[in-house]
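Record copied across here:
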Amino acid sequence: MRPVDLAREHGLSTQAIRNYEDAGILPAAGRTASGYRVYTTLHAQALRAFLALVPGHGHQTATSIMQAVNRGATEDALRIVDESHARLLDDRRTLEAVEAALRDLAPVPQERGDTFIGPLARRLGLRPATLRKWENAGLVRPRRDPGTGYRVYGADDVRDARLAHQLRRGGYLLEQIAPLIAQVRSAGGVAPLESALRDWQARLSARGRAMLRGAAGLDAYLRTRES
């Protein structure tokens, strides 16, 4: 096969095929007497495996998997696959923690205006040191007054502090609360969060299905190499 033969099957450029070989994604090609690359069904299967791995694992991880296989380190490749699946599992557990935390939330009143750390701490029945600890953990992100350097909590910051306070009273750890607060911020509040969580779940499911397709492609390539 020529580079163009591999490229046409997947709508790629011939330069992309050469780049994949140079990166170790494809095994080294043979050469004609005049120096042209010659590919085989093994290279075609390698390319299919790589393109199947990318949607579930990402380009960098898929590259590492193929590089390991092509240098004969199959166990290393399988370990990389396992680590990628473990990251997906961690993401699923984070989503489950966020969903559980959301069920425990009471309605958070809409705040207006700015406040400082002392008044906010008194309103929540906390010590200022607790709010500073939450700030270090990323749960609240007050801005600083340019003249005094004091922390200034806007409406969104007060909302985040109230959410964190509710969840702490519910027994959640700071590392469990942080993903929820991040989701609230990205969703623009608590109300739109359910839709964001559904989208998050859909993305995780799509990633899991893509990993299954990638596993099938990789297994086919491994069997081709063995035969």
User: Anything to note?
Assistant: The beta strands are 30-31, 37-38, 115-116, 143-144, 151-153. The domain at 3-87+208-226 is CATH 1.10.1660.10 (Multidrug-efflux Transporter Regulator; Chain: A; Domain 2).
